[in-house]
Write a structure and sequence with these properties.
Number of helices of chain B: 14
Number of strands of chain B: 12
Oligomer: heterotrimer
Largest interface: B-C, 202 and 202 residues
CATH superfamily of the largest domain in chain B: Type I PLP-dependent aspartate aminotransferase-like (Major domain)
CATH topology of the largest domain in chain B: Aspartate Aminotransferase, domain 2
Helix content of chain B: 25-40%
Shape of chain A: globular
CATH architecture of the largest domain in chain B: 3-Layer(aba) Sandwich
Number of domains of chain A: 1
Order of helices and strands of chain B: HHHHEHEHEHEHEEEEEHEEHHEHHH
Strand order of the largest sheet of chain A: 1-2-3-9-8-5
Strand content of chain A: 25-35%
Number of domains of chain B: 2
Structural class of chain B: alpha/beta
Distance between the termini of chain B: 18 Å
Radius of gyration of chain B: 25 Å
Order of helices and strands of chain A: EEEHEEEEEHHEH
CATH superfamily of chain A: RNA polymerase II/Efflux pump adaptor protein, barrel-sandwich hybrid domain
């Protein structure tokens, strides 16, 4: 199970990349993508929308499930990846390249609350039964 | 081919519609339809042939065994259909005066009384058109009850994680927050979790018993005490009533409101997706809120009770009185069964389920709750088989189609990975069950020797495996003529 | 034992396999204090012969009447083939088409139905049915609120079927959605446009627009649709499907067309049957399809590229999305849709036009005849379609009783729904009525009026 070391993670299976300019990029992990199966539809938040941490802001839909995506941090949506809107299967092909949206975090401190790769791996191990 | 592809311009049938057009059309011009709707222009024989041949592509109870858990696919007696379709019943307008419908109303009243007895509830309304609508009615009544008592802080409905999807969907549709509680290893609701979840915000608990895991919730009386003590009410999802009909009454288990699925327990037809009917029964607490109309029998005359008679009713959920034709079919069924027949339903449904469970266990299938009795259904889990061979429950389901059996339920409960929820119903003979077991044995052997073949099932149906990903990605929901 | 095939030998063998001594033992997990006694209100079982006798007696008790009642449920000729095919076991006793490969008959039929309904209503897509017209309107209101995102208010004219409004209220109230009613113009029987303008500064998720309305009166649908769109509200049409063969469909109303269309599908080959089962239809514009409740069928291919059909967009539905589903609906009215599809195929566009046209022409003729009687006049001065409100100068309930005594059901007393419309009958004549039927009504009404005078 691929858990890239340089990313941060949430308990709801989103990955977070901290960019050099202070923004963050958000997507869903390999675990989530595998559970959902073939993606058929993605609904992304509007650009300039302000989100609270853990607010549900997007939906990824497969044939057998529709999953809410939760904002890993509070902040303003500054970009969305229209490529996954037109081709949702890109998430299945490479979930770490097929990002969903970018945020400008409102509170830098919230980043510390995210899991690192080791913490996320532990979560995956405990969920497996 | 689609029916439209048989069309020929200006081909029409002659005896089903008036022979000519009327002389004038005085609809104002700006309100007239100028376009021609896309309806087939086909001969009567081609229409009959087309739809008859389509029907032959379907599985149905009349043709195949359907061990679909939670759906209760029992035989739909033919007499129920022919008698419900007597011409006087079919031609009666819903707004015709009550004195022109005393025969029909007598059937409805009798059905209300029988269902009251069967469920042990104080009153029954026949108006709900499906289980989900029955749930909507039940939760709406619970809301009305709390509001009438000035109890506006109750914003939560507790639902076990094993519940059918309509339960949480209904709670949210009624403006409540869903509090999910887990199920323990034995298949029962986790009582500690329930005690922790219950509180001043609890409007109610929704429970199915036997649960969707196919086992009886042994602590149901205690659950009822806990929820009532906290001021909440209890909703019973009667989808699995077939397991306990004539053995246990939901009213005795402490439920305040219940719905029954006539298209399950009372053998009305599934019709390719509906119509159903889900009469709602209530205990004393919720009596005033029951939806209208309800049939009353006063001094030898039957009449509908309406909002005027029941001022605290939550109101109406349908334009008329519900799915009358379905109710008639259920009435005829209960009259054919009688009291003794009702007792026997749950006995033989439970016998069939336990027998199948024992036989499949002998073959080597893993039973999800091996230390419990099956109710009228039980769960087989294919998790070990999937981990070892990659063959999933869905693959097995598709291979069963090749063998001439409809698959068991695979969509839920979500709790059990790779599950097959199996419900034989009481109308199946031992020989049919044995044939099913033989088919399952064949599939087990096939999994061992040709797992790839199973993963590509079905092979012998009119179609191979359908591409449902494409169906969702490339939405094609209406036919369009070329050009 | 009716419907239970087990012999004593079967039972013994099965118990042996299970390892239980009796069937009773299989219920040993149920606490003893919950086990019930006998059912006391359920009569002993009847044979098929006995129940047939009972049902024939009850049916005969109800008999047949010459009916001129409409008000949301309409008597049309149902071709013989419709129910003969619909009650074939393969349609009647088949299950929801979750296993697509075992349900291609039902799935293809539903795809054909969706195509016909979308076209009939002038919209892009259709679902595979809801319970009935009233609950379909409620679902449309919920859908409009989801789509609109800011307003939780629905504006509905009082010319919409009164029970539909009541059902909508019961259902949407749970989600704190407000239903605001607009009165009708007593002269025209239409939504008063000037009354609409008093709401010009308020926000609504949707305006409901009936066509024809409950009185049979034709509304100014273009103006109403544009009014809604000018306010960024959705336009929700409530229509009679047979009327759409003659009337401009919702998709062509106003500048942009209505957004959602719902209604009662019963006129399409479904018997009156005391009020059900009927079916609700819902169609909408393409961009709203993911918000549409209910099952939807899509065309696709199988592994080998062969054309096939499947339930699609299921992730919106309760069995997957659970608490975030578009609706809690699971079972729909599938068998009725089967009948309606066969009905529409047998009639075709020209046949359906003639059914609509004769329903209208007969009502026009009946109204003309009846207005010649003393003390009978149209309640509203507006174009109407296949239903009309007639005001009497004598107590209308007594008149209805007089008609009934002669085997004629003369219509609906509008006062039951609209207290201001005293002694006013809503009458409807469909294509099933002959010249003799209209003459009989006229003669019987003449007698009843004379008796009241």
């Amino acid at each position: 199970m691929s858990v890239p070391a340089e990313l941060k993670y949430t308990e709801s299976h989103e990955w977070v990349r901290l960019e050099a300019d202070g923004s963050v990029t958000v997507g869903i992990t390999q675990h989530a993508q595998e559970l959902l199966g073939d993606m058929v539809f993605v609904q992304l938040p509007d650009v300039r929308r302000t989100l609270a941490q853990r607010e549900d802001c997007a939906v990824v839909e497969s044939v057998k499930a529709a999953s809410d995506i939760y904002a890993p941090l509070g902040g303003e949506v500054i970009a969305v990846n229209s490529e996954v809107e037109t081709s949702p299967e890109k998430i299945n092909e490479d979930c770490y390249t097929a990002w969903l949206f970018k945020l400008k975090p409102a509170n830098a401190g919230e980043v510390d609350g995210l899991l690192d790769a080791g913490g996320y791996q532990k979560l995956l191990d405990s969920e497996a039964h | 081919m689609l029916i439209f592809e048989h069309s020929r311009k200006n081909r029409r049938n002659y005896s089903q519609a008036p022979a000519t057009r009327p002389a004038k059309n005085d609809i104002p011009d700006h309100l007239k339809r100028k376009s021609i709707p896309l309806l087939p222009e086909v001969s009567e024989m081609d229409t009959v042939r087309h739809y008859t041949r389509l029907s032959q592509k379907n599985f149905s109870i009349d043709t195949e065994f359907y061990p679909l858990g939670s759906c209760t696919m029992k035989y739909n007696p033919r007499a129920c259909n022919s008698l419900a379709m007597l011409p006087q019943f079919l031609s009666r307008h819903p707004l015709a005066p009550e004195d022109t419908g005393q025969g029909f109303l007598a059937c409805m009243y009798d059905l209300q009384e029988i269902l009251k007895d069967v469920t042990g509830m104080a009153a029954v309304s026949l108006t709900s058109m499906a289980g989900a609508q029955g749930e909507l009615i039940g939760i709406t009544m619970i809301r009305a009850y709390h509001e009438a008592h000035g109890d506006t802080e109750r914003t939560e409905i507790i639902i076990p994680d094993a519940a059918h999807g309509t339960n949480p969907a209904t709670a949210v549709m009624c403006g409540y927050k869903v509090i999910e509680i887990p199920t323990n290893r034995d298949g029962d609701v986790d009582m500690d979790a329930l005690k922790a979840a219950v509180g001043p915000k609890t409007a109610g608990l929704m429970l199915t018993n036997p649960s969707t895991l196919g086992v009886f919730e042994k602590k149901v009386a205690e659950m009822s005490r806990i929820v009532h003590a906290a001021g909440g009410l209890l909703y019973y999802d009667g989808a699995n009533l077939n397991a306990v009909l004539g053995k246990v009454k939901p009213g005795d288990m402490g439920f305040d409101v219940i719905h029954m699925n006539l298209h399950k327990t009372f053998s009305t037809p599934h019709g390719g997706g509906g119509p159903g009917a889900a009469p709602v029964g209530v205990g004393e607490r919720l009596l005033p809120y029951l939806p209208v109309p309800i049939v009353a029998h006063e001094q030898g005359v039957y009449r509908w009770l309406t909002e005027k008679d029941r001022p605290q009713t939550i109101g109406r959920l349908s334009a008329h009185m519900g799915n009358a034709g379905v109710l008639l079919r259920a009435y005829i069924y209960v009259r054919l069964l009688g009291a003794e027949g009702m007792h026997r339903i749950s006995e033989y449904a439970t016998l069939n389920a336990n027998y199948l469970m024992a036989e499949l266990r002998k073959l080597g299938f893993e039973i999800a709750y091996p230390n419990r009795r099956a109710s009228h259904e039980f769960i087989v889990t294919m998790k070990e088989i999937k981990d070892r061979t990659g063959v999933t429950a869905m693959n097995l389901a598709k291979r069963l189609l090749d063998k001439g059996f409809h698959a068991p339920t695979t969509y839920f409960p979500l709790l059990v990975p790779e599950c097959l929820l199996i419900e034989p119903a009481e109308t199946e003979s031992k020989e049919t069950l044995d044939r099913f077991v033989a088919a399952m044995k064949e599939i087990l052997d096939e999994i061992a020797t040709q797992p790839d073949m199973i993963k590509a099932a079905p092979h012998d149906m009119p179609l191979r495996k359908i591409d449902d990903v494409k169906a969702a990605r490339e939405l094609d929901l209406v036919w369009e003529p070329a050009g | 034992m009716p419907f239970i095939p087990h012999t004593e030998e079967d039972v013994a063998e099965m118990l042996a396999s299970i390892g239980a001594r009796s069937i009773d033992e299989l219920f040993d997990e149920i606490p003893a204090e919950l086990k019930t006694g006998k059912l006391t209100q359920v009569p002993p079982g009847l044979s098929e012969m006995e129940i047939s006798r009972l049902m024939y007696e009850r049916a005969q008790q109800d008999g047949f009447y010459l009916s001129f009642i409409g008000a949301g449920a309409y008597e049309h000729h149902i071709p013989a083939a419709v129910w003969q095919i619909t009650t074939r076991g393969e349609f009647y006793s088949s299950y929801t088409p979750y296993q697509a490969e075992a349900s291609q008959g039902t799935l293809q039929l539903l795809y054909e139905y969706q195509t016909m309904m979308a076209s009939l209503t002038g919209m892009d897509v259709s679902n595979a049915s809801l319970y009935d017209g009233a609950s379909a309107l409620a679902e449309a209101a919920l859908m409009a609120v989801r789509q609109h995102r800011t307003s939780r208010r629905i504006l509905v004219p009082q010319t919409v079927h009164p029970v539909y409004r009541s059902v909508m209220r019961t259902i949407v109230r749970n989600q704190a959605i407000e239903v605001v009613e607009v009165p009708y113009d007593p002269a025209t029987g239409q939504v008063a446009i000037d009354k609409l303008d008093q709401f010009a500064q308020e926000e609504f998720a949707a305006l409901i627009i009936p066509q024809p309305n409950f009185f049979g009166v034709l509304e100014q649908v273009d103006a109403l649709t544009d009014w809604a769109h000018d306010k960024q509200s959705l336009a929700v049409a409530v229509v009679n499907p047979v009327s759409l063969a003659m009337l401009k469909p919702p998709g062509e109303w106003g500048r942009r067309g209505a957004d959602i269309a719902v209604g009662e599908g019963q006129p399409l080959g479904i018997p009156l049957s005391s009020g059900g089962p009927y079916f609700g239809f819902m169609t909408c514009k393409q961009e709203l399809v993911r918000q549409m409740p209910g099952r939807i069928i899509g065309r696709t291919t199988d592994l080998e590229g062969k054309e096939g059909f499947a339930l699609t967009l299921q992730a919106r539905e309760q069995h997957i999305r659970r608490s975030k589903a578009t609706s809690n609906i699971c079972t729909n009215q599938g068998l009725m849709v089967t009948a309606a599809t066969i009905y529409m195929s047998l009639l075709g566009p020209e046949g359906l036009y003639r059914v609509a046209a004769y329903s209208h022409a007969n009502t026009v003729a009946l109204v003309e005849q009846l207005e010649k009687l003393p003390g009978v006049k149209k309640a509203f001065h507006s174009p109407f379609f296949h239903e009309a409100a007639l005001q009497l100068s004598v107590p209308a309930d007594k008149v209805l009783n007089g008609l009934k005594a002669q085997g004629v059901l003369g219509g609906v007393l509008l006062e039951n729904y609209y207290p201001d419309l005293k002694n006013t009958l809503l009458i409807c004549a469909t294509e099933t009525k002959t010249v003799e039927d209209l003459d009989k009504y006229t003669e019987v009404l003449r007698q009843a009026l004379a008796a009241s005078a």
